[in-house]
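Exam prep: given the inputs below (a chain plus adenosine-5'-triphosphate), describe the expected output before reading on.
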Amino acid sequence: MHDILPEQTALWQWLEAEMALQFAAYDFREIRIPLVEQAEVYTRAIGEATDVVEKEMYAFEDRNGDLLCLRPEGTAGVVRAVLQHGLLQVPGLKVWYQGPMFRHERPQRGRQRQFHQFGAEVFGIDSASADAELIAMGQRIWRKLGLDAGLRLEINSLGDRDDRQRYRQALIDYLKPHRERLDEDSCRRLDTNPLRIFDSKVPQTREIMLEAPRLSDFLGEQAREHFAEVTGMLDRLGVAYQLNPGLVRGLDYYNRTVFEWITDDLGAQGTVCAGGRYDGLVSMFGGKPTPGIGFAMGIERLLDLLAALGVERSQTPAVFIVSQLDAGRTLEMAEALRDSLPGIGVSMALSGGSMKSQFKRADRSGARFAVILGESEVAAGQVAVKSLRADDVEQTRVAMDELPGWLARHGLEA
Ligand code: ATP
Ligand code: MG
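Solution:
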C-alpha cells in the first residue's frame, strides 16, 4: 500500500477533475460508497472460485462477529447501494465512482494492495447502445488524456448464462484428456472455473487452449445479435477494436459484452480499463431483474502511462511575499492579498529572516512573482513586484490597490 506524496497529488487532482468532466459529459453522477462492506456482498457477486475472492480479499470479523471486507472492486458495492436506496425504479441510472480498492496480491509493477479505480455503471438498459456509449466514453477519455495511440480495445461476448453453461461443459470435455499436461492452477480451475484457464500464462497450457472450443460458437441467437449490434455501432462511431475470443474476465458476474483496453507500455500488467455486462447481478442481490454494464480503470496504471508521456502537474504558489515588516504586519498584508486575489496561492516565509534568505525561499517555492513589502513603500501605499522567472518583467512599484490588476495583466489567473 502506497503513500501518495504532496509532489504527486497535483497530477492525481488534475486527472480526477478531467474524469469528473468526462463522466458529466455522458450524464453520469458520482456515487460514494463505503470502503467496507459485508464480505458476502463481494463473495456472492464476484464468485467463490475467483482469484479475487479465493486469494485476494481482505476479510475480517469485526467486534460483533460480522464478516466484513475491504472492497476489492466497486461494482458489487454499487449494486448493493442502488438497490438499498431504490435507485433502480427508473431505467437508465448512470453512476460513476472513484477511490481505493484492496486486494492482497503479490506486489509488483502495476499491482498494489491498495490501488485506485475510476468506475462507471449503467443500469436498466439492455440495448446495445448502452454498451456502445460506454465504450465510446472510454475512447473519448483516452483521447482527452492523450493516451489513445497507446491503447487497444479488445472485446468479446460471453453469451448468456445458458450459452455459457453449454460452453463450460464442452470446454471440460475438451480439457479432460489433457488434464495431466495442464499447470496446477489450471487443473484446479478445470473443476471450479474452467473459463479462467484462458487467463493462464503457462506456455504449455496456452498451447492446449489454442485448440479449445470457442465460446463464440456457443452463443445463442440473442447474444449473437446483441454483439453484432454493439460492434456495428462501434464501427459507426469509428471506435477501433479487436475481437478476442479468449477474453473471459476474472469475475463471475459478467455476461455478453466484455472488453479491455490494453497497453504494451507497462510490461505484464497491461490492462488499464476493463468492463462488461452483468445482466444477472441485480437479481443475484434480490432485486427485480435489471441489466447492467460497467467498467473500471486502474488509476495507478493510467498515471504510469501519463508519466511515460511526460505529463506533469505541480502546485506552486503564484505569489511569494518577501517582507521587511514585522511578522504581524506581514501576515496582515498576506491576508489582504488573499482577499483581493481569490483563488491565487499566496505564500511567505513564516519564520521571517533576512531579505536574502526570503528571496531564496521565494525562488525555491516555484512562485511566479515576489511581492516585496518594504517599510517606505508600504507607508506610501505601494509594494514592489518582481518576476521570479527569467523573463523581461522588470521589478516595479505598484500601488497596493492596483496589484491585482497588475498581476492579471502579467498572466496570473485564479
Ligand atoms: P488483472 O488481470 O490485471 O489481475 P483484474 O481482472 O483483476 O486484472 P479488474 O478487477 O478488472 O482487474 O480491475 C480493473 C482494473 O483495475 C485493471 O484493469 C487494472 O487497471 C486495475 N487493477 C486491478 N488490480 C490492480 C492492482 N492490484 N493494482 C493496481 N491496479 C489494479
Ligand atoms: Mg487481478
